[in-house]
Structure formats: structure tokens, C-alpha cells
Amino acid sequence: MASTAQSIVDGTTVTRVEHASAFGACGALLRRDFVLAWRRRGELFLPLLYAVIVAALFPFALGPDPALLARIAGGVLLVIVVLAMLPALESMFRADLEDGTLEQWLLAPQPLALLALTRVIAHWLTTVLPLIVVMPLLGALLNLPVKVLPVLIVALLLATPLLVLLGSVLSALAAGARRSGILMALMLLPLAVPVVIFAAGAIAAAQSGMPFIAPLSWLAAALVLAIVLAPLACATALRIAVEA
Amino acid sequence: MAISPASRAPLLSAHRLAFSRNDEPVFGPLDFSLGRGETLLIEGDNGSGKTTLLRVLAGMLPPGEGEIRFDNEPASRDNRNGCVLWLGHRTGMNESLSARENLEFLAGLYGTRQGASAASAMERVGVVGWLDEPLRTLSAGQKKRVGLARLLLLPGDVWLLDEPYANLDRHGIELVNALIAEHCADGGAALVTSHGAVRFADPRARHIHLVA
After folding, report:
1. Cβ atoms of residues A177 and A238 within 8 Å
2. Which residues contact A30 (CB under 8 A, 6 or more apart)?
3. Domain spans in chain A, listed from the N-terminal domain onward
4. Structure ipTM
5. A-interface mutation test, from B12, B19, B109, B191, most A Cβ less than 10 A away
6. Residues A60-113 pLDDT 10s
7. Is B110 on the interface with A (CB under 8 A)?
8. Any CB–CB contact under 8 A between A29 and chain B?
9. Are the Cβ atoms of A28 and B104 closer than 8 angstroms?
10. DSSP one-letter string for B9-74
């Protein structure tokens, strides 16, 4: 996917450069992030382990009451996923700022917002998707009703990209700050609350046999809005991070 | 060879360019222009603002006062990006990836020069056996050479090189000088900072002295 550009030197037109297309640039970034994720796969395994351990400990802490577990399972799983995502969000741009890769992003003939969106997609696929994949197992540990599981998974498929998009803006803002973990958590909390409320609303509705499409539609609408706006805000925040 | 007006217009020029940090002047006001085939050497002691000047020219810092022009147009992201290659103190490359992976990623962002490849660029800078080793296993000088390979691989008329001689041995310094000379002969231009300890190859290159 490379187009050929022409530049004028000494009055004659000479073909000199194969410019990268935006599509090709996104592909290159995705490939790079996947390779890096594979090299650090031990680290990526930790959130997954955390989620499994918490879900396994809950029944022991609450006592063997299947009815109680079935009632709270949806909400507990939602909170487990949000908490398991949080540590990785903080370092979304940290390494790239420190080794100067962001400087190269800024000067590349590509829209910075598009690169930021690509990073969000790569981050979601490598750190969040595995958590959603093990949901059936975690649901079984917590006695989640089988009819609720699909709703929980759809709610997570909508809510987690939204959280990663919001987190990307905060992560870019906090990238230059030392020990930004606490800052990140405090800033993300008010943004995460509405997302959790709508996702939990859909799960609760499904559990009591009521229509659950409305809260899911709200999540989907917010996700669409965030896909458009968050990368632009993230790009601006990245420029500020490189300036500092 | 007749030179058309288009090629005589400076690639990059600065007018009354100055930068202050917290009301402390860092450099300037400076006036200079850089045409195709020209090299500008920016000299000064540590802390005299060489890197800051380069970052302002690269658009990574907003100019405090004055104007920067690319191809006779006021500098903007549109006319700067894709025209400038930046080699800074930070390598701009991930330590867990190999030189080849890093170079191929950057080529994906910037495009490639015609006929260039990661392997040929690495061979030219003399790090040929280390193409697939993680970057963190390379020495500081070798990493610098991988950075130089980037200049050979990626397209860009204006090279902004911040201390390209740092960490390099005698052959490495000669290599930098040769690369700059070839780039200028090819119609490019380069801005190079140095603290003045190395001999610069091109005797015709103009100098800017920054005073702290």
C-alpha cells in the first residue's frame, strides 16, 4: 500500500520516494505492537491471572450460597475486568515517550490521531480481549446464569473499548509524570462510573428477564462518539507530552 | 546545470527566531536559511540551546518569537512532516525489538527511499551482524549507527541531527560526515549540532554559534 510521490529537483521531475500510506502505517504499528506484546507475554498474563484468582476467591469469602452468587456474579465480573484493565492503561504511551518513539510519531507524515487510535486497538486486543475470552470460565466460578452470559459479554465488548479510549487520553496526559498510577486511577474513576452503570444496567435487566437493549445502545452510542473524539484529544495530549 | 528558482528557494529558513523558557531566553533571535545541498553546523557549549533550537525547528516545541518557513511557506505540520528526519538523544527505537523490526516499523510510518532497504542500510552503517538481535544487546555506539541507518532508509530532505557524533568511534564520525555529504550532494540539507569537539568534514558548511 505505498504510493509514489514525485519531487522537483533542478527543474526536472524525479521519482525519489515511496511514501507510506496511512493504512500501511496503521498496519506497521499493529504489527509492531503485537510483536512487542508477544515478547512480553508473561506480563500480559498477569491481569488474566488476577481476574481468575479474584473470581475463584469470591465464593470462598461469601460462603456457598448459589442464589447469592448468581445475583451478584454479573456486577462482580464487571468490576474485576475494569480493575484488571487499569494497571496496563497507565503505561500505554510511557515506553514510547521514554525511548523517543513518540518524537518519530509526531514527525511522521501520518495523522497522529490515527496512530493513537491504532494503539488503542492494539492495546485492547492484547490486554483486554483475553479477559473477555475467559468470561465463560469466570462466570462458571461465580454461578452466573447461562442466559446472562451473552449479555455480559456484549456489554464488555462495548464498555471495555470505551474505557481504553478514555484511558488513552488520560494515559497520554500522564505519560510525562512520574508515578502517574494514582493520578490515572483518580482521573479515570469519574469517567468509568457511567460506563459501569450502563453495563451493569444491561446485566441486571437480563438477569430479571427485562429488555436489556436500551443500556447496550447507550454504551454503543458512547463508544461511537469516543472512537471519533478520543483519538483527537489523545493526539493533542501526546503533543503536550513530547513538548514537556 | 541550470538551477531553477524553485530549487534555489531555501528548504528551511528562520526569521528572528527566539525561544524562552519561563521568561529566560534560551537562544535567539536567529536568522538563517538552509538551501538544498547545504549543511549548517550549530555549535555551542552544553546548555546553550542547541537541542532546543532543533526541537523548535522540528515542531516539537512552539517557537517563542519569529517565524520558521519550509519551502517558502510558513511551517506547518503539512509541509514539515515527511520532509524532516529527526535523530535525537533518544534513539526513537524500542529496545525489545531488533534493528530490523524497528527500521521496518519506521519505514511503515515514513515510507522508504527508492532502492533502500533495512538490510542494505544496516550494511552501510556497519552493524550487519546485529540485524535480528534485540536492540538492548547492542552497545551505545551500535545503537547510534542503527539510528544512522534510519537516515539512509527513510525519505526526508531536511536532516535534523542532534549530536550525531556522540558515542561514535573515529570510523563512525567519518561515516556521519560521509552520509551528510552524500545527502547534500543528492539535494538534501542537514542541520547538525555539535559541542565542537569533532572535526566537521565540509569546510564550506556555515556555522551558528550559540552562547549560553
Report:
1. no
2. A118, A121, A122
3. 41-243
4. 0.89
5. B109
6. 999 888 999 999 999 999 999 999 998 899 889 999 999 999 999 999 999 999
7. yes
8. yes
9. yes
10. S-SEEEEEEEEEETTEEEEEEEEEEE-TT-EEEEEE-TTSSHHHHHHHHHTSS--SEEEEEETTEE
